[in-house]
């Protein structure tokens, strides 16, 4: 007969090189590493800046995603060997897309203000493990050593899915295998592209699905912007050779103009 799943806790030791500060964690270095040009950064790279050594994941959408703490990071990676250093100026050009969530299937989590223990599924979907028998079936007799205490402030990065009432409903190894990368876990897609030149925008309109991004690149020799007609969103000034990325989460038509030349107009159709 199943027994009620107790909320046993475990404190995990973190590596000495990690320091948790204000929701970020950091790696320290004893000497300056060679900086990677922004143009060489690719989807899937791990990056940090010069002055503030927080680590970020570069998504397929061209945005950087924050690892909110060391526990999250180590469900995806075992070390920092592949972290690339960017100049602070180049890092600032990469828009923050959101927080990385735990890799599915690796561990269970709980928070202080919620007595439930959750398994993690795709894109931060939390599924209540409803009994200790099920926890044992999923993670073995030492399941309680595989529960991470997560700060309440991170809980908003997750969504609540259906409860697990049978071990057949959740196979940790399958969940982990399906989320081979953070890109696949979040279904991140490469942004659609639009060029800005002396003759305006090319193409003048783009159709995308909700949740996708547009990368606007200034291929002219003077400054340009992409500014919505109702002034509700915009890229700000894009200098020659630079790019800005804007995400569109909701369906609709989003017309825009160039603040430096109002005759240049275009539109984004999200459907």
Automatic annotation (TrEMBL):
Name of the protein: EfeO-type cupredoxin-like domain-containing protein
Record organism: Candidatus Uhrbacteria bacterium CG_4_9_14_3_um_filter_41_35
PANTHER family to which the protein is assigned, alphabetical: BLL1555 PROTEIN
Coiled coil: none
Origin superkingdom: Bacteria
InterPro entries xrefs: Cupredoxin, EfeO_Cupredoxin, ET_Amicyanin
Regions that span the bilayer: none
Residues in EfeO-type cupredoxin-like domain copies: 186-268
């Amino acid at each position: 007969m199943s027994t009620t799943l107790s909320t046993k806790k475990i404190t995990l030791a973190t590596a000495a090189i990690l320091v948790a500060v204000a929701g970020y964690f950091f790696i320290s270095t004893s000497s300056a590493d060679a900086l990677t040009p922004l143009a060489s950064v690719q989807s899937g790279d791990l990056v940090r800046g010069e002055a503030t050594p927080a680590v970020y994941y570069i998504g397929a959408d061209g945005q950087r995603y924050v690892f909110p703490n060391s526990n999250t990071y180590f469900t995806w990676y075992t070390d920092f060997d592949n972290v690339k250093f960017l100049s602070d100026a180049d890092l600032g050009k990469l828009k923050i897309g959101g927080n990385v969530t735990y890799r599915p299937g690796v561990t269970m989590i709980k928070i202080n203000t919620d007595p439930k223990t959750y398994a993690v599924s795709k894109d931060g979907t939390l599924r209540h493990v409803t009994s200790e028998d099920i926890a044992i079936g999923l993670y073995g007799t030492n399941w309680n050593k595989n529960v991470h205490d997560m700060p309440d402030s991170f809980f908003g990065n997750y969504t609540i899915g259906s409860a697990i009432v049978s071990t057949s409903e959740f196979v940790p190894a399958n969940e982990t295998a399906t989320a081979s990368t953070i890109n696949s876990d979040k279904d991140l897609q490469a942004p659609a592209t639009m060029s800005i030149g002396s003759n305006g925008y090319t193409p003048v309109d783009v159709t995308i699905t909700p949740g996708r991004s547009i990368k606007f690149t200034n291929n002219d020799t003077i400054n340009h912007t992409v500014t919505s007609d109702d002034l509700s969103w915009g890229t700000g000034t894009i200098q020659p050779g630079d790019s800005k990325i804007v995400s569109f989460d909701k369906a609709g038509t989003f017309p825009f103009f160039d603040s430096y030349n109002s005759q240049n107009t275009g539109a984004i159709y999200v459907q």
